[in-house]
Amino acid sequence: MSIDRLREMLPEYAKDLRLNLSSLIANPEGMTDQQLWGTFVASACAAGEPTVIAAAIEQARAHISDEAVTAAKAAAAIMSMNNVYYRFVHLAGNKDYSQMPAKLRMNVIANPGVDKQDFELWSLAVSAINGCGMCIDSHERQLVKAGLAKETIQHAVRIAAVVRAVAATLAAEAAAQSYTAN
Questions:
Q1: How many structural domains are present in the chain?
Q2: Is 45 a catalytic residue?
Q3: Angle at 10 between CA 48 and CA 70, to 5 degrees
C-alpha cells in the first residue's frame, strides 16, 4: 500500500484530497524527508484508519529509518494521551487543575530517539488533529524557538489536515459500503 494507492482509493467527490496529497509530498516546504514522512506517519496513526496508517508507514519506510517511524508512532501515542489531558486542563472552568501535576509518564518526549525538533513537529501535527490548543501552542512555540520556519510548521499542519480528511473519507466509504451490503 502506498500513498499513490491511497489516492486511487478516494472517491471522485474527494478529488481535492487526492490533489492535496500529491502537492504535500511534491512541495515539502523545506522539510527534510524525516520531517515529511514522520509527519505523515504520526498523522495517520492519530487519524486511526488502518488503510491510511499502513500506506503512510510503508511509504515512510522507503524514505526514513525504522527508528524514525517508531518515533513518529510514539509521538502519536503520547500525544493521544496528552491531548486529552491538557485539553481538559485548558477547557475546565476550574483553573485549579492547571496548578496540579499531571502525574502521567511522558519519558519519550525527553528522549524520542530522533531529533527533538522533528518529534516536536510530529507532536504538533497530532495535537492539531486532536484539537488540543494548549499542546498546539506549546509545540509551535518550541519549534519557532528552535528556528523552524513558520511555512514548515504550517506544512506539517496541512499534512495532518489532509491525512485526517483522507482517513475520515475512507472510513465513511467503508461504512457506507457495509451498510448498503446489508
A1: 1
A2: no
A3: 35
* CA 58 to mean position of chain CA atoms: 16
CATH number at residue 106: 1.20.1290.10
Active site residue 132: yes
This prediction's pTM: 0.94
pLDDT digits (tens, 9 = 90+) for 84-140: 999 999 999 999 999 999 999 999 988 999 999 999 999 999 999 999 999 999 999
| Per-residue pLDDT tens over the stretch 27-79 | 888 999 999 999 999 999 999 999 999 999 999 999 999 999 999 999 999 99
Question: 102 lies in which domain range?
Answer: 3-181
Please, are residues 135 and 82 in contact by the beta-carbon 8 Å criterion? yes
Task: Record the cell numbers describing residue 13, joined without a space.
Answer: 467527490
Catalytic residue among 6, 42, 128, 135: 135
Q: Which of 132, 148, 157, 167 is catalytic?
A: 132
